[in-house]
Amino acid sequence: MDLDAPTALLGGLSPAAFMRRHWQKKPLVVRQALPGATAPITRPALFDLAARDDVESRLVAQSAGRWQVRYGPLARRSLPPVGKPGWTLLVQGLDLHLPAAHDLLQRFRFVPDARLDDLMLSWASDGGGVGPHLDSYDVFLIQVHGRRRWRFGRVADESLVDGLPLKILRRFEPEQDIVLDPGDLLYLPPRWAHDGIAVGECMTASVGFRVPTQGGLARELLQRIADGVDDDGALYRDPKQPATATPGALPPALVDFARASLERVLCEPGALERALGEVLTEPKPRVWFDGGAAAGAGLRLDAKTRMLYDDRRVFINGEAFDAAGRDARLMRRLADTRRLDVRDGAALSDGARALLDEWIDAGWLHRSTP
Ligand code: SIN
Ligand code: CO
What is the value of pTM for the model shown? Predict the structure, then answer.
């Protein structure tokens, strides 16, 4: 991807200019970002996906001001008739199951994989939507079938309507009101209020992003780091402990020992980077891999595989491997392009090739024709 080349996807901006001017800053409406766009899946096939227990889905219905939300798996017979107005079915992680959705998500890899989450697809009957709300992440909303009216704007008051099964803003004063046709795109930064209402039946794809919270990330990192700590036998000693008349008091030397123990673990070189790479490549819940028997001399990552790297290691599906020299260069190429051609595969060391064979057996990587 040429980061400085203007692209229709971003309304004639280059990815570099988009990131500078809009990302996390201000919305962008792009007419015909994806000319000729069509739904990556038919409505019945989307409904079938929503019935699977390895797919995350939700049904949102509204009638006479009453909202109803149901979480998947959702059997077809439990969905309202398609001719009934005011409901929508939202299916997460289409990119994991559908090559066309995976390919669409790849168009947005000018944002780091560590931030890219998934491609969601929603189908809505006339008037369907999830109500005025805000999200904590950036989103690209792509109209792939039919038309949808979007109203959006900044919010002064983030308070929500009480007692509803979903988060609906109490006060929503849109600054813009537009209708998107197939191929049109709307980018919204985090915390911009929006309300998308289907104009006739429609489908909308949304590219969502991962937003770690400080507390959540700290908890996950600490768990990972804790798992890797071995008890090296250093014992607490207190030869200077005087006789005490306050036996309930915590000895200050023990507090110092505890602090030093934690610092030792947290400051171990590479411990944080390793844990972060493992956490960020951990597959989502309910993801499993099928070891494939595909033939071919090239290699491609499975759509469900998450692979990242830093300057010392590669991370794949929750595991970290040290990598240096040519192996590291080729592994990084695999992470960036999600494939390796025959020549690159042949240039790997025996050790790296053996590792790749394990990844093929696990279904993380597949042989492919170049
Ligand atoms: C939708 O596709 O209906 C909802 C997307 C969103 O508002 O974030
Ligand atoms: Co939203």
Answer: 0.94
Ligand 1 pocket test, candidate residues 57, 62, 130, 142, most atoms within 8 A of CB? 130
Dump pLDDT digits (tens) for 22-45.
999 999 999 999 999 999 999 999
Q: pLDDT tens digits, residue range 230-255?
A: 877 689 999 999 999 999 999 999 99
For the CA of 204, the closest atom of ligand 1 is: 2
Please give the distance, rounded to the nearest whole angstrom, from the Cα atom of residue 172 to the centre of ligand 2: 14
Ligand 1 atom having least distance to the Cα of 88: 3
| Domain formed by 279-368, architecture | 3-Layer(aba) Sandwich (3.40)
Residues in the chain: 370
Alpha carbon of 226 to those of 153, 222, 236: distances in Å? 43, 6, 19
CATH of 8-209, one of 2.60.120.650, 2.40.440.10, 3.40.50.10860, 3.40.1700.10: 2.60.120.650
Determine the Cα–Cα distance for residues 216 and 227; give it in Å rounded to an integer: 17
Residue 197: phi, psi to the nearest 5? -120, 125
* pLDDT value of residue 139: 98
